[in-house]
Amino acid sequence: MTVSIGDNLRQARQSAGLTQREAARKIGVSTLTIIHWEQGKHAPMPENAMKIAKVYDLDPGKLVGWFSGNYGWPSKEWLDR
């Protein structure tokens, strides 16, 4: 079974203990945008992926299903600077 980016986003948000509304406010987007990302209707732009990673406290590559290495994405440590 393949996990979608939307599924990864939903799981990461829930693991962070955030509602869609709370996540939207912290990331700086609308709640509808969060819903669309999680439903797979749209994918976050790279600049939003960095914000998402910081808010959800994870490496950006994990959002797109890369579980080893960062493949050019900044690490979580870099984001925390």
Could you characterize the architecture of this molecule?
This protein has 81 residues and is an all-alpha fold. It has a single domain, classed as 434 Repressor (Amino-terminal Domain), CATH 1.10.260.40. It contains six helices and no strands. Mean pLDDT is 82; it is low at 68-73.
Strand content: under 5%
The total number of structural domains is 1
Distance between the termini: 36 Å
Mean pLDDT: 82
Per DSSP, the total helix count is 6
**Name of the CATH homologous superfamily:** lambda repressor-like DNA-binding domains
Order of helices and strands: HHHHHH
Spans of at least 5 consecutive residues with low confidence:
68-73
Report the CATH C-level class. Mainly Alpha
- Report helical residue fraction: 55-70%
Remind me, CATH topology?
434 Repressor (Amino-terminal Domain)
Number of strands: 0
The major beta sheet can be summarized as: none
* Net shape: globular
Gyration radius over CA: 12 Å
**From the helix content, strand content and strand pairing, which structural class follows?**
mainly alpha
